[in-house]
Specification:
The chain is α/β, with parallel strands linked by helices and 405 residues long. 32% of the residues lie in helices and 22% in strands.
Length: 405
């Protein structure tokens, strides 16, 4: 059927214009041929290059179906799924198990990563050549590649294959059993801290390797002021590097911590000075895109307090409203720039050539973040109870209405 979105503010050519848009969608008895979008905004579908869909291997945390439905509810039409699965996608046969589930159950486009090393163990190179036609890039996400020679070889092979290496940068020798940021809160409450150097030191190493190899290098979930400074200088020197940060690092810091697992993620919430540096990096173009690191766990895994809960929070259903509320409505970030960070830049860097689709948002009506409403199986979010603006009303992908409020 033909669906006309009437009178909405449509993102077009880098700016918003009030106009009517007519699209073809699969028939749905809930829809009328004309939808009044007056006062509403129509964005290209968002793309998230850092999502944990947990399947195969951990479907009690999330499934491809529930994770992609959560994405659709958040306005996303493209997701890149991280490879810490069982089996890990370190060979084509292992990758096919994931591809089969995606083909059967995904509500939106899903592009998986292949691992850099077998089993993400850092010891033997994965079959990058065999997986290359089917993946968006290579990553040992959840674990840093500790060996410099291994990372150099991975970059050389990825360069030859025209693929991005997306690095989880973490030096295990500097962790010392930490689980939140090594800062004021950890000291005041007797928690073991994770130092900032454990993140920025591997970035420093990898940037030298990227300069040497010419590899397209992407840094996952940066959280420290030193990381921002290193990447800023690397870009000035012509290194092919991009990076992402998450909504929680841009809007929260260690001062917001509570003794609850919904505030525990890796990397952790850092100091206020780190948050300010991330915002500066977002504004000056050092940070290329925003990714959620959507990492669902069971309620039991997240209910053990700050020390003993599993690392990771969900983010697909809260990313846009949190960022719109805290950065756009406050005048820190133009709405057009947020669309670039959430939709255009991720697709460009990772060559996500799927149908972009679109999503319709009401930006005028506040509502509280309620995890009970999430379509994700994971419910742990540091934004629980927060009053936000930006409710997704509809997401259309590949000619299908994949979410409708």
């Amino acid at each position: 059927m033909e669906l006309t979105l009437q009178g909405g503010m449509v993102y077009f050519g880098g700016q918003f214009e009030q106009r009517d848009v007519t699209v073809s969608v699969d028939g749905d008895t809930r829809l009328f041929p004309t939808l009044d979008c007056s006062g509403r905004y129509i964005f290209p579908g968002f793309a998230d290059v850092h999502v944990h869909l947990r399947e195969p291997g951990f479907s009690y945390k999330e499934t491809v179906k529930s994770g992609t439905m959560a994405g659709a509810r958040g306005g996303y039409t493209a997701l890149c799924s991280m490879p810490n699965l069982k089996p890990t996608p370190d060979s084509l046969p292992h990758l096919r198990e994931q591809l089969d589930i995606i083909g059967r159950d995904a509500a939106v486009a899903v592009s998986p990563y292949g691992t850099i090393t077998v089993g993400e163990m850092g010891e033997t190179m994965a079959d990058l050549e065999g997986m290359a036609p089917y993946v968006c890039g290579f990553s040992d996400d959840g674990r840093g590649v500790q060996d410099e020679g291994m990372m150099r070889e991975a970059m050389l092979r990825a360069k030859a294959l025209g693929k991005v290496v997306a690095a989880h940068c973490e030096d295990n020798s500097l962790l010392h059993g930490g689980y939140i940021h090594k800062g004021r809160y950890a000291e005041a409450h007797g928690h073991r801290g994770i130092c900032s150097e454990s993140e920025w030191r591997p970035i420093e190493r990898d940037l030298k390797l990227a300069a040497e190899t010419g590899c397209a290098y992407h840094v996952c979930h940066i959280s420290t002021k030193e990381s921002v400074a290193l990447i800023r200088e690397a870009k000035k020197s012509g290194i092919d590097v991009t990076c992402e940060t998450g909504p929680h690092y841009l809007t929260l810091c260690e001062d917001d911590l509570m003794e609850h697992g919904r505030f525990k993620m890796n990397p952790p919430l850092r100091g206020r000075e780190d948050k300010e540096a991330l915002l500066e990096g977002l504004l000056d173009g050092t940070i290329d895109m925003i990714a959620t690191d959507h990492a669902p766990h069971s309620a039991e895994e997240k209910g053990r307090g700050l020390e003993k809960s599993a690392m990771g929070v969900v983010g697909l259903e809260t990313a846009f409203p949190v960022l719109y509320t805290d950065l756009v409505k406050t005048g820190i970030l133009p709405l057009e720039r947020l669309v670039v960070l959430m939709a255009e830049a991720p697709r460009s860097r990772f060559d996500l050539d799927s149908d972009v689709g679109f999503t319709v948002f009401d930006l005028n009506t506040p509502y509280p973040v309620n995890p009970a409403d999430f379509l994700s199986q994971g419910k742990a979010t540091p934004f629980e109870g927060k009053s936000v603006y930006g409710r997704c009303l509809m997401t259309v992908y590949d000619g299908k209405v994949v979410y409708q409020a």
